[in-house]
Design goal:
This protein is α/β, with parallel strands linked by helices. The protein has 15 helices and 34 strands. α4 runs parallel beside α5 and α10 crosses α11.
């Protein structure tokens, strides 16, 4: 590598060269050198190598997706590339019994070294660490020491495994969305996180290796598409016919908290399923309070003394009650806490209580709709109100006692609704592209786990239990549900584009309600995943890769920049500003200044993939204050693959911050639904 003005940069400075699927490199530069390089001809963007963070038995049944779905011989030829923390290959979820050799299109490899072998289920595995620096607990191979990568892989494409549970909890048949798919593993996440340089290297390889779907359950904080490694990688994947499914992020419930939002890949929110875990706390006065956790420890109903953390400060370490009430590490007085249950303000990992010798812990401050987690000792996480009642009991009783019961489960009749933690829109970069795209189960999901990783993420826990399955929550769990469903659609429609598959997933999603999920479409997009219906959507909104280039032109990218991105002679047409409105997206979003009158036209084209001869009628739900007209309001198709265009005109004024509507094309057999959201600019 030689560049004028960079003569001192030798091969040792080059971390990666991306050339299999797109062009670029990761290199060590000073700030001044980076600025100089950014101004050079042919350089699209220069951005720092930042760190990103990692963002099931019952869930597929709840979605109405049976174990034995219609499949074809093509099913076992579909390959899902999972970019995460690796995989635990010995898990029953990844046994290759019944699988033939990898499909001939597969060009990947298995870089497993001595402690890792691939099989006919896990057909490829690579690992990436650009700076070559590893923590002591990191395993230098695709093997997963964290559990996260194993969990998401098994949600997307894990085998059918009966009698899976976390020590009896969530007992049932664990399975992925598309168990006949193959898995290719790209380990990019380590104990410290996941870097942009490694993410891009993995995308480069996955595209060239021949994967069909990419699943990536992580995100960062960038607000610019081309300084975001996931958006860049997903763009090149899309141009190569590969759909990328990404997680929306775990920064909800506030609006505008999304971490993945580019229009060429999926952003998936986390919804609940109809199974709820709860952990009861019984006091010495026979009152019982219900919290949440994954508690497999059995105190055998024995009552123990209970103490408030704020009354047990470790004064020798300089802590007072204001500090010790949160029960952080070494803030509690072991002499006062040992052998007792300790009440703490706020949730923590339980290590402080464990170090102080506590028998169990009750934490207070839980918000509604929180996901459950495991702790290294008996624990329950309660609402502030219930925590206050326990605090009052402690202060009004000479010898207060309590016990924590093992976790139980019950049906949640209100499901599905969006998790509190799930990141919300609107899209921070393109205000008129609705994100997230749709929701999928991401709360209390049981799936495969790495037995060397404690389910509570506390090392001392491994002495008590090493488990092959775990129950966790996050948009990380929602994303592979959609990846598995996308793989299923790909097996039935191998020629469909990434946009066609996304359209099928979105237009068949089950509508959700703003009453149960604050943020409305910015919480759930088109609605909750319906994988069975998505395989046969009736109509699709397709998008050619060139349409995204027009979209980027509308975002203000220059022709020079555009050509450097695309690697060809693309140019922006005159007057292309505003092309974002007419990207053929399966949803409609319109941002408008407050108090302004609205008048806007969207243009869309649908392709018939349902019945050869059919007539669709437009059904519009219109909220107060708005007029929504579709022209033409009837679409008559005479053949499969035929395309017809229409416009949607929205006029009126906003009566509140977010206004929801919808358009359904209905031919009596198929209902092709698109959400419409009009909102006041933030």
């Amino acid at each position: 590598m030689h560049m004028p003005g960079f003569s001192h940069i030798g091969p040792e400075s080059l971390l990666y060269s991306y050339k299999r699927s797109f062009h670029g490199f990761a290199v060590e530069l000073t700030e001044q050198e980076a600025q100089t390089m950014a101004g050079m001809d042919g350089v699209v963007s220069v951005f720092p190598n930042e760190k990103k963070e990692l963002h099931t038995t019952r869930s597929w049944d709840f979605l109405g997706f049976p174990k034995q779905v219609e499949t074809t011989t093509i099913g076992s030829n579909v390959i899902i590339g999972v970019l995460d923390s690796g995989i635990w290959p010995e898990s029953d979820s990844f046994n290759d019994k019944g699988f033939g050799p990898p499909p001939s299109k597969w060009k990947g490899t298995c870089k497993g070294l001595t402690n890792f072998t691939c099989n006919n289920k896990i057909i490829g595995a690579r690992y990436y660490r650009s700076d070559g620096e590893y923590e002591k607990a990191d395993i230098k191979s695709p093997r997963d020491s964290d559990g996260h990568g194993t969990h998401v892989s098994s949600i997307a494409a894990g085998n059918i495994v009966s009698m899976a549970s976390v020590q009896g909890l969530g007992l049932g048949t664990a399975r992925g969305g598309f168990p006949s798919a193959r898995i290719a593993v790209y380990k990019i996440c380590w104990l410290f996180g996941c870097t942009d340089a490694d993410i891009l290297a993995a995308f480069d390889d996955a595209i060239a290796d021949g994967v069909d779907i990419i699943s990536i359950s992580l995100g960062g904080s960038t607000r610019n598409y081309f300084t975001d490694s996931i958006a860049i990688g997903a763009f090149h994947a899309m141009r190569n016919g590969i759909l990328t499914s990404g997680s929306a992020g775990n920064r909800g419930p506030d609006l505008a908290t999304l971490t993945n939002f580019a229009p060429w890949y999926l952003s998936v929110a986390a919804s609940t399923i109809d199974r709820k875990f709860f952990t009861e706390v019984q006091l010495g006065n026979n009152k019982t309070y219900e919290g949440i956790s994954i508690n497999t420890f059995d105190l055998k109903n024995e009552k123990y003394p209970i103490i408030y953390g704020g009354d047990a400060p470790n004064t020798t370490a300089g802590a007072d009650g204001l500090v010790s009430r949160s029960c952080f590490d070494y803030t509690l007085d072991r002499n006062l806490v040992k052998g007792k249950i300790v009440l703490c303000d706020g949730e923590n990992d339980g290590v402080g209580q464990l170090l102080a010798g506590a028998v169990g812990t009750v934490m207070q401050g839980r918000r509604p709709n929180s996901g459950v987690f495991a702790f290294p000792l008996p624990a329950s996480y309660l609402s502030l109100e219930d925590g206050n009642n326990i605090y009052s009991y402690i202060n009004s009783t000479r010898s207060p006692t309590a016990t924590i019961l093992k976790t139980n489960e019950r049906r949640d009749k209100f499901a599905p609704y969006i998790a509190t933690f799930s990141s919300r829109g609107p899209n921070p970069t393109s205000h008129n592209i609705l994100k997230p795209d749709l929701a999928a189960p991401g709360v209390d999901i049981l799936a495969a786990w790495s037995p060397i990783s404690p389910i509570s993420e506390v090392e001392a826990d491994l002495d008590k239990r090493a488990l092959s399955y775990n129950i966790i929550s996050g948009t990380s769990m929602a994303c592979p549900h959609v990846s598995g469903a996308a793989a299923y659609i790909k097996s039935l429609h191998p020629t469909w584009s990434p946009a066609a598959i996304r359209s099928a997933l979105m237009t068949t999603a089950v509508p959700m309600s703003a009453e149960k999920s604050p943020g409305a479409e910015f919480a759930y997009g088109a609605g909750n995943l319906n994988p069975l219906n998505a395989s046969n959507p009736g109509l699709i909104y397709d998008i050619d890769p060139l349409d995204y280039i027009k979209y980027l032109c509308g975002q203000g990218f220059s022709t020079k920049l555009l050509q450097a991105i695309t690697g060809d002679k693309s140019s922006c047409p005159e007057g292309s500003d505003g092309a974002v409105f007419d990207l053929n997206y399966p949803s409609f979003a319109l941002s408008t200044p407050p108090l302004n009158s609205i008048s806007h036209v969207f243009n869309r084209t649908v392709t018939n993939v349902g019945l050869p001869t059919c007539t669709y009628k437009a059904i519009v739900t219109t909220p107060p204050g708005l007029s929504i007209k579709v022209n033409p309001s009837v679409l008559s198709f005479t053949s499969l693959g035929q395309k017809l265009s229409f416009s949607v005109t929205i006029e009126g004024t906003l009566e509140k911050q977010i206004v929801s509507a919808s358009l359904i094309w209905d031919d009596g057999t198929f209902q092709v639904r698109s959400p419409i959201v009009v909102y006041g600019a933030f």
